[in-house]
Design brief:
This is Cytochrome c oxidase subunit 2. This protein is of the alpha+beta class. The protein is built from two helices and ten strands. The chain is 29% helix and 33% strand. A hairpin with a 5-residue loop joins strand 6 (113-117) and strand 7. The structure holds copper (II) ion.
């Protein structure tokens, strides 16, 4: 071996070691990042009150809060608790008066559903185990269709509900 060969060999070995260290660091970062997302996606960590590790807990919460009824929460505000389940929204028909500010509490008891009220910006994913909240003020009377915009199986296209905005009675 010439002195040149030895110097080359030593330098190649240093590079190889540096590479091995890089790979170990990258694998460690990947492992940590994966664990972080797995824990969050599977709800093992509860970060806010709206998240539950048990999907049925969210269902019970909505059920306990009068699913199917429009609850008056103020002079001009209403709350509706609504559950998506393949393939219907419960309640399926919601009556609110014109000009009412309505807060929707939305969850799902099986798979992901898309809670969309046509003709409004209301668009929220109904997630099992999570109660999502969205507010909207209905300024005109008429029938607004609630559709599911997240494919959820065979009868997804027929998962249609209604928000019926009634004219205010003369005072
Ligand atoms: Cu759907």
């Amino acid at each position: 071996m010439t002195p040149f060969d030895e110097a080359f060999h030593a330098s190649a070995e240093r590079h190889e070691r540096a590479f091995i260290v890089c790979v170990i660091v990258m694998m460690a970062l990947l492992t940590v990042a994966t664990m972080f997302y797995v824990v969050h996606d599977f709800g093992l960590v509860t970060t806010t009150q709206s998240f539950h590790s048990d999907p049925t807990a969210a269902e019970r919460e909505v059920a306990a809060a009068d699913t199917g009824r429009v609850v008056k929460t103020g002079p001009n505000s209403y709350a509706v608790h609504i559950t998506g389940k393949a393939w219907r929204w419960t309640p399926g028909v919601i009556h609110v008066p014109e000009g009412a500010e309505v807060t929707f509490y939305v969850t799902s008891s099986d798979v992901l559903h898309g809670f969309e009220i046509q003709g409004t910006p209301v668009n929220l994913t109904a997630v099992p185990g999570v109660v999502g909240t969205v507010k909207y003020t209905f300024h005109r009377t008429g029938v607004f269709r609630i559709i599911c915009n997240e494919y959820c199986g065979m009868v997804h296209h027929a998962m249609i509900g209604q928000v019926i905005v009634d004219a205010r009675a003369a005072e």
